[in-house]
Amino acid sequence: MSDTRRRVKVYTLNEERQWDDRGTGHVSSSFVERLKGISLLVRAESDGSLLLESKISPNTAYQKQQDTLIVWSEADNYDLALSFQEKAGCDEIWEKICQVQGKDPTLDITQDPIDESEEDHFEEIPETTHLVELPPCELSRLEEIADLVTSVLSSPIRREKLALALMSEGYIKKLLGLFRVCEDLDNREGLHHLYEIVRGVLFLNKAALFEVMFSDDCIMDVVGCLEYDPALVQPKRHREFLTKTAKFKEVIPITDSELRQKIHQTYRVQYIQDIILPTPSVFEENFLSTLTSFIFFNKVEIVSMLQEDEKFLTEVFAQLTDEATEDSKRRELVNFVKEFCAFSQTLQPQNRDAFYKTLANLGILPALEIVMGMDDLQVRAAAIDIFSYLVEFSPSMVREFVMQEPQQTEDDVLLINVVIKQMICDSDPELGGAVQLMGLLRTLIDPENMLASTNKTEKTEFLSFFYKYCMHVLTAPLLANTAHDKNSKDQPESSAKINPVCPDNFQTAQLLALILELLTFCVEHHTYHIKTYIMNKDLLRRVLVLMNSKHTFLALCALRFMRRIIGLKDEYYNRYIIKGNLFEPVINALLDNGTRYNLLNSAIIELFEFIKVEDIKSLIAHIVDNFYTALESIEYVQTFKGLKGRYEQEKDRQSQKLNRGFSLRYRRDARSLDEEEELWFNDDEDDEDGEAVERRMEDDFSDSYEKFMEAKKGAANGANGANNGKSATIPPASPTVAPNSSSSTVKTVALPATPVVKTALVGLVDYPDDEDEEEEDEEEDQSPRKRPRLSS
């Protein structure tokens, strides 16, 4: 048997009942020794690899659909399809299949599929039940026809027989002729029967019937029959919508009549599936699988035909980027490109790759810059959808374009800045477009999808570009809505609290929450760039202003941003937080929340619990030194007592080790200091504690430590007399002072906390988190006060 090569595409049906393209090649039929039979072979046209090797089994049911498709099942839930470029090739392979199986090639199916439930009782069914006799196509027999059509849907064998009968006798066109008669006579009963008949014929799931029903001279009558649903009081007006409301717009004239007819047909069939037909039940979900395949292959054919027309796409993009193009024309062009991109999702990966590269070469990204700036909301929405297709397909392609843009005098002409401004200026109260754009920005700045790039410097170059040209645009709304009094540093300490301009507008709060979510992502994934930006802009202080917002979700977003920073356990961040006294707004929010047991309360406590569990010594010392008086009354959790305990343990360990090694350290030659100690002595980042560090290394260390212990006991005695109830506000914290100043109204001792914790002269040993002996003596015998109940 000679080989006949024809160009085909191989498809398989996935678990979601969608066709996956496995590749393009040439099909042949030949004897395969290993399979011991005539088989279908498809070799890839690109490299000659074997895409398909399928033996033609005598018992396999093959179906021919739409003159260019052959579909069959090789195993449970494994369906295959060959889509031929030419009808002649399909006919020739179909004849080979029928020849092997001994079937008539004029039929569109080679076997009668039998399910298990029917196979068991096959012998009990009378032979006459396999023959479906259609009643005469008359008005008086419509009810009988409707009963027949609905009765066969549960039997695969009878569905096949009915489909053959409908095709052989030209029955469909006769039924549609009766529809026109019934509509002229306003025969509602007959129209209701025709609805059931046409719906049942669609559920037969036969491509050969679809070819007749969806032809130009039949499809509108089919839609008309489906308007008369017996469950509706008044019929729908689907035909009126399709013929008058829905207008087919040729943004560029389509000269190919076959392509134009295919577009019309696909739109109308999609309308029938999505709008007219009810959502199929669990038992009916497979009844329309062939209809889904019909639409799928039509879309593939449309995209392929448009791609092959080089002049068409060139003209589309030429007009899209032409400044002289009218806004209405550009709107139609953008909507066309959006639909074109949506149709392209049916292409196989390699073809989709070529498709988007073609769009990029034609100038899709510069065009998006233009249309995103238009005032038309529909145009902007369509442009965002197109941009999402491009980003999801290839973020690297978008990043490469952005970095190649000429640097203008103003940054707002850059594509990413245009996208950010669209996110900020979204007029939707629910910010639907802003949420979508935020997700796209997150994809673009995600280092994870930069790793596979052939350009190894993509991550560094793009992030440097983004932080230089785009980050200030992203954070502008945040900085504008968290302005504080610039003279606060010159005011008395009691009035040095940030004066927030917190947004009460819900839409603004939502926008700020989106920006904070993106910045939190940056903290997690951009170590160097975001750290530099936060330090230079004092960004965390501005974010924590939002802890005062009346919108709890926004306060939680601000808290989450700080939590991610602390979670990195980076001493640069820790020193920045300590120097700026940035725990104050968080603790104020905790105290202002009062006894309410809510998410804000739990999130703040979790932040301090993390610091305690991870034993971040510099932060523990800062919190206890500055805020413990305000927090010690919170007893429904042991977090703050635990912080105090760790603080006291560290103090004791440091003092013991320093005392034991005091004389030894001073006998050591200065040149014997190791590198770490030299770094410690040379560390001038915390200028406020510089003098104290030097004093601690002098001979009067013992005297300073005795003064510290006396001051500590005095503070404890004062707390017992003056702080019986819960503090309403935080004691005045040390303000942000000049580097040479060492005064503080909270710290009552000369010995600062930070150098004691940070010193590298001695090793630190972690002991179990036991209660300090002094605390055990002062604790009362009764159990700690439980968490208050919910209160308004």
Derived structural class: alpha+beta
Q: Return Rg in Å.
A: 38 Å
Largest sheet geometry: 7 strands, antiparallel
Oligomer: single chain
Helix content: 55-70%
pLDDT < 50 stretches: 114-130, 485-501, 669-709, 715-792
Q: Care to count the β-strands?
A: 7
Per DSSP, what share of the residues sits in E-state strands of 2 or more residues?
Answer: 5-15%
Instruction: Give the termini separation.
Output: 87 Å
- Number of contiguous helices: 36
The general outline is elongated
Report strand order across the widest sheet.
4-3-2-1-7-6-5
What is the typical, i.e. mean, pLDDT? 77
GO molecular function: protein phosphatase activator activity
InterPro entries: ARM-like, ARM-type_fold, EVH1_PP4R3, P4R3-like_central_dom, PH-like_dom_sf, PP4R3-like
Family: Belongs to the SMEK family.
Function: Regulatory subunit of serine/threonine-protein phosphatase 4.
Overview of the structural elements:
With 792 residues, the chain is an alpha+beta fold. Among the domains are: 4-101, Pleckstrin-homology domain (PH domain)/Phosphotyrosine-binding domain (PTB) (PH-domain like, Roll); 141-245, no CATH class; 569-658, no CATH class. The protein has 36 helices and 7 strands. Strands 4-3-2-1-7-6-5 form a 7-stranded antiparallel sheet. A hairpin with a 2-residue loop joins strand 6 (69-75) and strand 7 (78-84). Helix 19 (432-444) runs parallel beside helix 22. The longest helix has 22 residues, at 639-660. The termini are far apart. InterPro entries: ARM-like, ARM-type_fold, EVH1_PP4R3, P4R3-like_central_dom, PH-like_dom_sf, PP4R3-like. Residues 715-726 have a biased composition (Low complexity). GO terms for molecular function: protein phosphatase activator activity. Residues 144-649 form the Serine/threonine-protein phosphatase 4 regulatory subunit 3-like central domain. This is Serine/threonine-protein phosphatase 4 regulatory subunit 3.
